Amino acid sequence: MVPADPNCPVVDILGQPLRLPPSALCQLPVDVLVLAAAEDGISAAEAEVLPSPIVVVGSNCGLRQEAARILADRGVLVIPDLIGGCGGSASMEALFGPATTPSPDDVLHLVEGLVDELVTDVLSAARTRGLPPSVIAGDIAAAAAVYPDRPPYGASPYLPSGIRPRGERAARARRSSSQKAIAR
Length: 184
Prior knowledge:
This protein is 43% helix and 6% strand. By secondary structure, it is mainly α.
């Protein structure tokens, strides 16, 4: 933690930001690489040498299939964009899903619980079924019930309600694409 006056602008605390060329991103020894700025965050060639053991794709289409496949073959855990970029949807579910209007602290708690449960479910099912997390996330999305005559929020099985089963929901979400992914 950088000790500083809380009224001081961040740029004054840290000085001039370090500017690196985009190619340096894939050479930094980081624990988690978050791709959240644009689509196709790293190339297949960069995926071959990326030192990070975990990649979280936060932007839509932030990682091409080829790069994701290379990372998975190398044992790099890739959290797909459907999960890594779900903060906005999770926030809306937490704000408008409960029967009564939650406090700001409750919204944050609900988002934390929802994302924690979803990520746990996806990773648990990926491990159990031997599939990439992106396939499991796609299965969950495909299995989601859509009711056009009901409000769009409040039916998420991931919205915490007191008792939170760990990693059991995704195992029930299956579709034929899972089997196709195995064949690839």
